[in-house]
Every structure is written in C-alpha cells, then in structure tokens.
Amino acid sequence: MYKKFYGLTRNPFEVSPDPYFFFQTPRHTEALANLAYGVLRRKGFVVVTGEVGTGKTLLVRCLLEVLSNNKTAFAYVYNPMISVPEFLTHVANDLGLLPSTARSKSDTLARLNNFLMERSRQDLTTALVVDEAQLLSWELLEEIRLLTNLETTKHKLLQIVLVGQPEFDRKLDSHELRQLKQRIALRCTLKPLGRDELKGYIHRRLELAGTASRAAAIFPDETIASIHHFSRGIPRLINTLCENSLLLGFGHGQRQITCEIVREVAADLHLDRSADGDVDNATDVPLNGYTDLPMDSSVEQSYGPFDDINFKRE
Fold first, then answer.
1. Could you give the CA distance from residue 144 to residue 129 in angstroms, rounded to a whole number?
2. Which CATH number applies to 26-192?
C-alpha cells in the first residue's frame, strides 16, 4: 500500500522471519557463528536463548540456510509440545527416513542410528534443531539428552540445537537437568538492540527494501529514539512500530515519520504503557539519554570461518 509512496520495492518490516533481512549485530552474528560452528564442527549440544521477539526464529532460519548450503541434513521441530513417540517419528520423517511397518520406539531409534552411522561414514553431518525449546517436557528433554549417546569414538552422530526463551535457561540450570547441562558445548543469549544498533537495523531494512540513501530522511534520529523507547530494542516490536508508522504516515501524506506518528501508533498498540499502567512520553527523553546494552566495541569481533556468512538476496 505504502511502498510506492516511500520509494520501496518490498515491505521492509514484515514480522515473518526472513533471512534476507538478517541484520548482523555483534550478538546476533556471534550467536549464528556459535550455532554454525557447533553443528558443522560436530560439538554436540548448542543452546541459544533470548526474550520474546529478539530474533531467535530468524536466527534459526538463517542457520537452516547455512546447513543446507553445507549439505547438512537436519530435522526441524518448531512445535515441541508433542509426545516422545511423536517427536521421534517427526525427526525420522524430517530426515527422510522411509516409514516402517514397525511402530515401536526401539525400531525408530534403530533406524535413526543406522541412518546417522551411514552419514558419518560418508563424513556428512546431521543435525536436530528445536525451536521454542522452553516448551519441551522434562520427559522429552531427557529423550533428547539420550540421543547424544549416539556417537562414534570421535564425535557425536547427531548435532542438537535448542533455541528458547529465558525460561529454558532456568530449566537447564535446574538440578534435574544437570546431566544435559554438562553436555552443552556452546551457549549464548540474544539481547534487545541498543539505540545505535536499532538505527542501523531500521536503515538496513529500508535499504534492502529499495530506499537507497533515503532511509535517514524517512526515519530521522529523533524518531528512531522514540521507536527505541517504545520497543525497548526488541526487533519484533520495532518491526510492528515501523510498519504501522509507515501506514499512518502514508495515510497522512507525510514522507517523514515523526515522533508524533510513532507515539500515536504506540498508543494504538498499547506499547506506551508501563507495567503500572502509566503512559510514557518518548519525546521527553533526549536522544543521548538512552543507555545501550553493555558491549565492548573497542575490540573488533571475529568469528573465524563464519565471518563471511551471507544470505541470498534476490
């Protein structure tokens, strides 16, 4: 609706996780590098956690693209609220194992082990990726831990990636899951974007959507400060605020998104209300009044062979 008005070729702020728009903040790049390294180097267990809306599912989509490009077979579980037999059947089916007339758990595990052994003999990697891992039952978590017993003397046959919300961290740190926790090779946490990161995030999405050098004209610094205030740096909320602000700006015939537009959108979405129900006023806070998340920016980040991770943009 608003694309032609703002000189865009596609919608820049869709909430669906599209690797085309992956913005490589130091934390997100580090998390993706950890995931890719953990799987491709056959480290066994890798865990990533983060608050709702911080980009975990997009990170998973990027990882799956990396795995596909590296001829890594994978099973992807996006809804883990299933029973153990259903879980094992889903994993087997996703890896392309032909259905068996025998429906027992032992048969499924035997077929899975044979499949993994054959791929290992061909020096091929196989992975299991579980999103929304905070929803995993205790029984299913124990079953996943036992899958790591499928191994050779040199490496694990199945590389396991678990991605979830902070509740999953607390579950992993519990006494009951100490055995699983000890098997985790890599673990990292996604955080909301700082103000400078948010500015780069918005500008990069607009550029990828066709604005060329006009991003700063559409979202000036004071507007970005307002978006950071209401979104708290959470990418999903940033997308929602920006998308609705562009729609409202188009409706008003304004080619520049102002703080007033953002504040109106935030009010409609109830994002202007703090925990005690008060209404915040983003424009009362100066641009330099925001505090970025702690990060050592003096050291250039390096992620070895994954420095050049890129995604196909057509």
1. 11
2. 3.40.50.300
